[in-house]
Design a protein that fits this description.
Elements lengths: L1 H5 L2 H20 L2 H18 L3 H9 L1 H15 L5 H17 L3 H52 L1
Length: 154
């Protein structure tokens, strides 16, 4: 919201260069570079908002943000089409900021965060189901082995 309202010409140039770099990394399929640029993109938006409190918070968490973005993207990439969708979401945020449409930028950012949260929650649930299934399989196989050993003795 505030980036769309307050971004200077310099901020717009930075965001444009960042968006172009993200699109280039996406096109090349460079997942690690794309994740790094993703974190930079969010940092640059915070800077373009010209909110001192937000900026201090984001700057103090930049390394955590970078690690979080990288891990989130790594998880999300397992979903078909998620890379393209993430790029589209970033493009929507960028376009709204460049068009100076704060409400549209806010909505695009909220949509992006909601998607990432839901997708990661879904992945965590799937991971949990897989882990539970593996434990059941181990118990089943142990029973099978014990049953086979018991038959040989008798």
């Amino acid at each position: 919201f505030y980036a769309a309202e307050r971004a200077t010409e310099a901020d717009s140039e930075i965001l444009t260069a960042c968006m172009e770099a993200m699109e280039a990394a996406h096109k090349k399929g460079d997942l690690e570079l794309e994740a790094s640029i993703d974190a930079d993109f969010h940092m640059n938006i915070a800077e373009a908002a010209h909110n001192v409190v937000l900026l201090h918070v984001i700057r103090s968490l930049v390394e955590v943000l970078k690690k979080g973005v990288f891990l989130s993207r790594k998880q999300l990439y397992t979903h078909q089409g998620s890379r393209d969708l993430l790029l589209e979401q970033h493009r929507a945020i960028f376009d709204a900021i460049m068009a100076r449409k704060p409400d549209q930028a806010h909505d695009a950012a909220c949509d992006h965060l909601a998607y990432v949260q839901k997708a990661i929650r879904d992945l965590e649930r799937e991971d949990h189901r897989i882990e539970v299934s593996k434990r059941r399989l181990e118990r089943f196989m142990d029973k099978q082995r014990k049953g086979v050993k018991g038959e040989k003795k008798g």
